[in-house]
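tool=predict chain=A
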Amino acid sequence: MSRDRSGGLDGVLVVAKPSGPTSHDVVGLVRRLSGTRRVGHGGTLDPFAAGVLPVFLGRATRLVEYHLGHGKRYTATVCFGETSTTDDIDGQRTPIAGPPVSRAAVEDGLRAMTGPLRQVPPAYSAVQVAGRRAYQMARAGEEVDLAPRDIVVEALDLLEWDDRDAARPVAVVDVRCSAGTYVRAIARDLGARLGTGAYLGALVRTESGRFRLDDAISFDTLREHAADGPTGILRVLRPVDAGLEDLPHARVTADEVRRLGEGLPTGPKIPLEIRTSDLVLAVGPGGDVVAVCRAVSGVLHPSKVLAARPATDGRPNPRPDLRPSG
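tool=predict ok
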């Protein structure tokens, strides 16, 4: 975690997004409070959803792609007895006169919906169809035919069951799933499996990869730190490679940082267990990640350089994006 050369900050903020703002709103808030132009997030949360949202600043934005495939965990509130046009609480709902839903039936349905699955995304989603977003077509009243996608649902555990309104029971479910899973579609499909309607009434993301909601900071806490300027933000900013600790890391010297910045491979020096790897983070003498590399027989080949190249005639050179060499 550091200040970047453009005056902004480098690192990861783990934010607890409340229900209401969009993920883009969170990015805008962090951009304003941190004084950092380059800011991105690590996985969209719908406006009505809350929970952990990793936000990447400065050089950390160039590592976002390595987070997007990480698994997610949610606490989902599933409401039975109605369908929703959007499969969640924000859509137009229609009562369904289906059979009564019991706790046992819900538990059986959840068990049947775990493992590798083919899931049809919601009609109101950002999936592109012939260059258009599905939700744009749905809002225009057009028929949306989306192809099923491969997902993995690791576990669906019933946490709470409320059937005080027998016609409209509510289940709270712990969901552990792969990236790209629509929890709204899980609620929709569970209702269909039980012969009734169902929609997602609330959603909280509790985990995103290695980031946990318990460790996330609220908007109020973020604003309190921002009141002290960039130094205050630095107190809650995690390193550039936060969340990627499981990836191989290789220490490199100042001279090797220069070579990587010029697109040149380093000499063999990597520990034996990671002599060959498609993805290695090179760490410079100061402890910062300076490049994303591919290791071949102990040699690092740069694919993405985060460190600034050495200055030429007093002028800094840009950081290049490189295809893996060798």
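The two ends are 31 Å apart (CA to CA). The longest strand covers residues 149-162.
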